From TrEMBL:
Protein name: Uncharacterized protein
Source organism phylogeny: Eukaryota, Fungi, Dikarya, Basidiomycota, Agaricomycotina
Gene3D superfamilies: 2.60.40.640
Species assigned in the record: Mycena venus
Bias (Low complexity): 410-422
Ranges where the record places region Disordered: 1-21, 410-430
InterPro entries: Arrestin-like_C (IPR014752)
Amino acid sequence: MSPERLPSYAEPLGSFSRTPSYSAEPGLYEQRLALNARLLPQPTGHFLKASKHGDVKLRLSAQDDEVDLPVYGSGAIIEGTVELSKVDSVSSVEIKVEGHLELKEKGEGGHTHHTLCLDTVLLWTKDANNTVCPSSLRFSMTLPTEFQYEGRSFPLPPSHQTKLDGLPGFSAIVDYSISAIINKPHSINSKKLGIHIGNTIVSTPFIYYPRTRPILPIPSPLRSEAGRFIERPEWKLYESVVKVNATTGVQDIGVKFYLPVSRIFCASQGIPFHVTFESDAHSLAVFLPYGPTGTSGKLPATRVQVMRQSLVDVKHATIYSERANTAIWRVDYIGDAVFRHAGDGATHTSFSGEVKIDPIKVMGFHVPGLSIQDCILLTVEPPEGTNAPFVGIREVIPIRLTTDGWSEDGSGIAAARRSSGSSHRKEVPK
């Protein structure tokens, strides 16, 4: 979707104060993922990366067999070995873990780079008591769960890349890597390349994939009587009005839209909702072709979708800036609803439905200069070029998506493993 057609975010973004930002401890609708090692044993495979001539190997343990890249979760323990077939003239051996966020704007030429994590562990160094390097060196490192920027803490973002082609446009990359560095005594420091020429470096990217889940299950559906839904505290009501064009002789249509109050949903499960349209009988009859089951155009005029906004702001380098907006964004629709007729009355018609989300790996997150956020979008948009009696509406409701579904005892999370860590970043609002 082009930036020119992006819906107004003034009201929804202002309402984000109702979904507070991340905190170090679980909030009202949050909890850390539990691990259930008895039900979900650790992977026993290895990921192997060798140097060009095969004399240095980086072997990472607790990985699934035949993975393209190693995968780690929040607070993960990275374990493995560095294997050397030639140990002569080795002065030291190091392991380095790095994470980077790089943002580029096209047209304006803006560019920014943040180091998300940087940790180096010395595995062995030559001295009077250790003159010969071992052929195998074990290591164990723990990934941080947060990084610091201008005195503030942010959750470590998942591996991700996105871009917006054209002008203005942007590219955003979050990537991580682990390297084994074999230092030689006569290496030459190249400041231009940022390495010591003569050393051997074996490096591989890895995927950082933090797991999350709702603390509450999806509530049971609302019951209806005479075509009206009976409200309950577990469901939040959002009201809007479909206005009529002048001189049409019909009345406005009131819209009652219900979502689970937490607004936290597993991305691989459907998002349930209910909606009721209210007016007099004549106005409802006129509205019917523009309703969820109407046939006023190629696409239904009434839709419920999941909308994802990827926003980059290189100049301010923070999504929390209150100054003039210099952000560039793209919008993707990652889910569409199916409606079911739930009942009618003389002055109302009701529907239930579910939004199925396209397969995604990365959930929403916020870091300086880059924001990935998801919303439910309720639209009533009469087809262009028609003399529709109604004016369209766009209701945008922020939500959070999680990698896993709710579980009462914490079991059943497929990626629960030692390499995924026992502390998990929270992706959900309070």
